[in-house]
Amino acid sequence: MMYSLDELKRLELYYSDQLLNSTVPFWFPRSVDREYGGFLLMRDKDGSLIDDDKAVWIQGRATWLFATLYSTVEAKPEWLEAARLGYEFLNQHCFDTDGRMFFHVTRDGQPIRKRRYFFSETFYVIGAAAYAKASGDTGAAENARRVFGQCLEYVENPGLLPAKFTGTRPAKGFGVPIIMMNTAQQLRETIGDPRCDEWISRWVDEVETYFVKDDIRCVMEQVAPDGSIIDHIDGRTLNPGHAIEGAWFILHEALYRGRDKRMIQLGCRMIDYMWERGWDPEYGGLFYFRDVYGKPVQEYWQDMKFWWPHNEAIIATLLAFLITGDKKYATWHYEVHTWAYSHFHDTENGEWYGYLHRDGSLAQTAKGNLFKGPFHLPRQEWYCRQLLRAYLSNEYSFV
User: Fold this and answer.
1) Residues 75 and 23 in one domain
2) Are 254 and 217 in contact (CB under 8 A)?
3) How far apart are CA 210 and CA 197, in angstroms?
4) 246 with 301, same domain?
5) With contact defined as beta carbons under 8 Å apart, do 324 and 379 qualify?
6) In sequence order, what are the residues at sequence separation of 6 or more whose Cβ sits closer than 8 angstroms to the Cβ of residue 331?
7) Do 26 and 44 reside in the same domain of the chain?
8) φ and ψ at residue 208, rounded to 5 degrees
9) 269 SS3 class
């Protein structure tokens, strides 16, 4: 299939409507914690609170969302105020004495858990940077750049983090270059930072060199330090949605760099490989895990359908279509968009359910927990809205 201009206009209106009349109203204003700051985001299908603990990385994500809405959609004072409450909660309660961030805190900010990796810090960076752009707060900009610098130190010197026991089987993970790439993109495009372009180039090179396997058409989730496949259960496990998310980060970078041909080809190959491996031909939707050699996967949820891979695939396929004009990506976008909105979307209460069985039936009703909150879905709807608006106004020459 191909999308006509009228169909693309309807898509833009659809994503705008979903974002502003279904997704954001589910979270706002009910989730703003005006007593302790930050956000109360662990919620059931009707928005009722199921836990008042706070996941630090989702506090950063929500801060990013409300600041971004303020800057790019409508300058609503209540959105900026929500972002301020999130930013201040992060500063006041979510950093340990060693400068690293907690992962999980109580409602009033008492620490519960701290993890070895630094993903909470990356979401602090994008939240603080977006708030700095929205508010003009120079201190927030300085904090975003400072914590980004800490993340770079962790990338270059993993020994600064608590040790991970690897025994005789060390591995490189796909997650670090991908999350850092998008963190740098957000920092660069909100408040700017001269370090970003060079580092993004390095991470794109790392993804292509180590994780993309053209000979067997896949993107690995982890590899040995030399890039070879670790032929054990963990080493063989693929996450199609995560690879597709990384693909659209690279396609986004290709546009930023004037339609860089190598990055376009790389991002599209990643989508192609992981769509082939991840799309469920029987029931539709994306599998959560696959094995690179088709062997059994260890995790019991391997064939479930989680919300966020579908958000990433909606972005990736739309972006690939608008850049290349290839009708294959229009077809895939239509398939994943239609499947996801007909299965995950709660038309009564708004937002999406997070977890479905393989056949698309509901596994549980939570819409917010330590891992799900106002990020992947609103980011998808916001990004697709912005992308289509730019395309339809000829702001970028995509095709």
Assistant:
1) no
2) no
3) 20
4) yes
5) no
6) 1
7) no
8) -65, -40
9) helix
Task: Tell which phi-psi region holds residue 198, choosing left (phi > 0), alpha (psi between -120 and 50) or beta.
Answer: alpha
Number of Cβ within 10 Å of residue 157's Cβ equals 9
Q: Are residues 322 and 238 in the same domain?
A: yes
pTM score: 0.97
Same-domain status, 232 and 94 = no
Nearest-5° angle of CA 75, CA 37, CA 89?
Answer: 90
Tell whether omega for the bond before 25 is within 30 degrees of 0, i.e. cis.
no
**Residue 272 token pair:** 């192609």
What are phi and psi for residue 310, nearest 5 degrees?
-75, -35
Confidence of residue 399 (pLDDT cuts 50, 70, 90): very low
Question: Above 60 in pLDDT, residue 368?
Answer: yes
**Separation CA 83–CA 130 (nearest Å):** 9
Residue 396 above 70 pLDDT? no
Residue 169: inside a domain, yes or no?
A: no
Domain that holds residue 380: 1-30+174-399
* CATH number of 143's domain: 1.50.10.20
pLDDT band at 202 (very low <50, low <70, confident <90, very high): very high
State the pLDDT at residue 395: 62
Torsion 311-316-321-326 (CA) sign: negative
Mean pLDDT of the chain: 97
Cβ-contact 257, 263 below 8 angstroms: yes
DSSP tally for the chain: helices H, then strands E? 14, 14
Co-location of 92 and 72 in the same domain: yes
Hunting for tokens 């599209």 — which residue is that?
A: 268
> Which tokens in the block code for residue 365?
């009703």
Mean pLDDT of 1-14: 96
Over residues 84-93, the mean pLDDT reads 98
